[in-house]
Design goal:
alpha+beta; Rossmann fold; seven-stranded mixed beta sheet; 17 helices; eight-stranded antiparallel beta sheet; Glutamine Phosphoribosylpyrophosphate, subunit 1, domain 1; 2 domains
Length: 486
Amino acid sequence: MFEGHEDKPREACGVFAIYGHEEAGRVTFFGLFALQHRGQESAGIATADGHQVWEHKGMGLASEVFHEDILCKLPGHMAIGHVRYSTTGSSVLSNAQPFLVHHADEYYALAHNGNLINAQSLRTELEDRGSIFQSTMDSEVIIHLMAPYLKYGIEEALTRALSRIEGAYSIVMLTRDKVIAARDPHGFRPLCLGSLNGGWVVASETCAFDLVGARYLRDVKPGEIIIIDQSELHSMTPFQEVKPAHCIFELIYFARPDSQVFGENVYLCRKRLGHCLAREYRPDVDMVMPFPDSGNYAALGYAEESGIPFEMGMIRNHYVGRTFIQPTQPMRDFSVRVKLNPVRPLIMGKRVLIVEDSIIRGTTSRNRVRNLRENGVREVHMVVSCPPTCHPCPYGIDFSSKGELIAAREGDVATVTRFIGLDSLHYLTLDGMVEATGMDPSSFCLACYNGKYPLPPPENLGKFCFETPYAQEGHALSWPLKLALS
């Protein structure tokens, strides 16, 4: 991976679904393209026409997995799609989604964003009853839980399955003639509903609607199940209402700035985070700058509030791929420079304030700060638009142990400041962060900052993966899995 990826939190995945469009597969491809920031390891699409189901998935970006000849082989007026970054299970083709299974003369495809915190115990229970799993993903547990109840209808089967699982899930499903969407009762991950030319669209973020020309209608409610078929849209809320726990990291880092998430515009929210930072901490500096694209919008807000000039002191190379030939040891700093390069005459001899959206492991920030000093920057101060990330996340973010988190490992801000090589460091307060969202403080999950988990995490909080010896790397997969049950 190129420099920068190892030091930022990564989202589990993005989902997209459409019903009622003659080119549903193609529209889904563009929806996944818009959601690519949510996962770059694999992509998949399943389509249906009321009688038959087709599927294709592979490792890589959506643009690498899908070409014109493949999209032509995905007909039908309904589709679901998925882009993935692995927080559960390994990065192999067998874990790419959607999962497509064949059971009792019906096809079921499922794509899932989130983490199920009781997946391990459920998997053990299901395997003891004879279930045979085709992947190491927690998402497959949902399909196996549904299977015994499918004879009562998919509504009953899905309700029964979801009543057994705990954790974060935003789900889209596909059968021969239905598209289904569901969101966990706490609403950890975003999921929204839109319309397109008389049909329906569901996506992780509204930016996908903008690209395909759909109109945003509303969010899928926490705990809601939506079933779309030829007799229109049906909504069910079968679960007891609980306190919402929206992941605040979606607003701070994950979501695209042009999306509407949890009812808030992400771009404007991040600017307000910068305003709050400027009110809390204002060192004597010559300029405000981000490390693009991280912190861009909070930096704009900081400059606006403080009156300190905003500058792009580092320029990003947008043509760096996901991987590149690794430098030799004498070129160990190459990985820092390949993505960002300083504007030397602008920053030389200056006191700069870096605005970051988060610090997770600290290694990338340290390398970048060292690069600034080597290029003549006199002082380097940093502000971060969230509090110290001190606790692991069981709900779909990839930091899953305290040892990965510099704020938890080093213990105090002064030590983190020295580790990164800064003149000063200030984290936004918890109150300031929540205030900037403009939302009810009680509606968020803040566990990665305060350790107060909305759902009790597993005793051994780590990666919820089920590693198996048969998982192999691959390039493309286009066939349904048989669902084995007792």
